[in-house]
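Forwarding these from the shared drive since the link keeps breaking.
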Amino acid sequence: MEHPVMESTPKHTILCVDDEKQILSSLKRLLRKENFDLLTATNGEDGFKIMASRNIHLVISDHRMPGMSGISFLAKVLETYPDTIRILLTGYTEIDSIKASINEGHVYKFLLKPWNDDDLKQEIRKALERYDLIQSNNSLHLMVAAKNKELEQINKNLENIIKQRTRELELQNQALELTRILFRGLPVAAIGVSYDRTIILINRQAEKLKINGRMVIVGNALADYFSKDVMNKFLPVFESQINQVKLDIPVDNQVYGVTLSALTGRFFGKGFILCLQEQAV
């Protein structure tokens, strides 16, 4: 059993305008098997009424019509519906009079009467392909413009983020510099110790200090200055079991109060501060 072939929904709509009804009938017969909607009007005014209610992709208009001429009609189509492709049908004797309109862009192409059926259908297909190409390019331009606007906004956001991050870094650097100054000026010996128990920072008071006969030097291990017994007492802080330990330790015949504290907040787990303060006898 044969199934009927389902025709696809017409993609394009064509408007033919001619004051001669037999011409319109000829066009209908010629194009009845083509896959587009064909609408007709006998004058420019009726043609515009149709265009006001339908999306017309191609207009084919006769040149000589009473009232509004084909050239005037297509010029008005260009002004009102610039995306619509415009074709003019004209006789051999009228070619010179329409050249100016073609040059001015009023019509895409003119076709001579009487026409060759195959040539006319081929020119209509080309005109509709041109319409699709123009629409595709317009869509592409709109998409590119939208993407460019989106990228512009992204760049603005990135600039704001960079400015904000730069400001944050500036404030952090200022805070670090202030912390360094305060650390350097502490009235007690202070030693910065890394998580692997290496001395990474000392203040002015610590620079003057000798522990077990050795000057405190950045880069040395903390264990180079304290006995194993003292290091074991520091161990709960190193292992994050407690935040702070205080000891009294003899250093070069002088008793010092020693406090080892773990860094807290965003520096938690990154190091320790060891302070030594000479005890009054």
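-- next protein --
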Amino acid sequence: MATFDPELRLVLSLAREAGAIALAYQTGGADAMQAQDKPDDEGPVTRADTEINARLVAALRAAFPGDAVVAEESADDAAAAADVSRCWYVDPIDGTAEYARGETCWAIQIGLCIGGEPVLGVVYEAGAARLSWGVCTPDRREAVVVDAGGAATPLRASHRSLAELRLVSSLSHASPKTLEVMQALRIPPERNLRLGSVGVKVGTIARGEADLYVHPRSGTKLWDTCAPWALLRAVGGKITDLWGHPLVYDPRRLGHDNGLVASHGAHHDEILAAIRPLVDDWFRSPHG
């Protein structure tokens, strides 16, 4: 029986250590973080991103030498992981823009894929003192959130109806397409929670605070979604691309080029059907 207890123990410890490093830099302010823009409009990077990236990659490779590790700040050789069954996807800080501004909606994310399926994920929102983890395999389906006091609570997605849906959307990358989604699903502004980080947003769905996240364009990467997807799978939620196709975890193609839809699962197909005319208009593509 594959319970992944050794992997989970290590990754929880690594995430907490990484969170402490990130908070130390953030407390030091702009001079300590040294944020700068990456080439090709790939967003900001800070000293914390690069240091945590190096530490996590080294620790995972030392603990599991047969595994591949693909991390955001060292992804140039990611294609070499294509033929390895077990692959870790690491985002040292998801939500760097918010992190660099001193906000709390960012996360350290460590996820494990086996045969292209996310089976384990840790999302540590260090700024909010919230650590979530999930394991989703045929032998084990469990997801937990640990608060600042160390109290652990099982994660549970909501069962809200289509008429009650709560949306979570981007804080730093607001899009007119989000307003179109809200109109199509009749979601009023007061039921739109705006946050940074894919992991933070998906975490709100896994906890039942929100029900839906739509990323209406390309831009997210495998390390953005692997760990959160394991959490959401464990509580019965769903993530697909905008047309309803499963997300593909292949390190030879790092981007989710067809956007994504994450939901509490109960009405995923109806949500996809409701936004399909919008999606076809956005992409003008024959996907189907």
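The mean pLDDT is 94. The helical segments are 5-27, 30-33, 47-63, 96-100, 176-185, 198-206, 222-234, 268-283.

- D.
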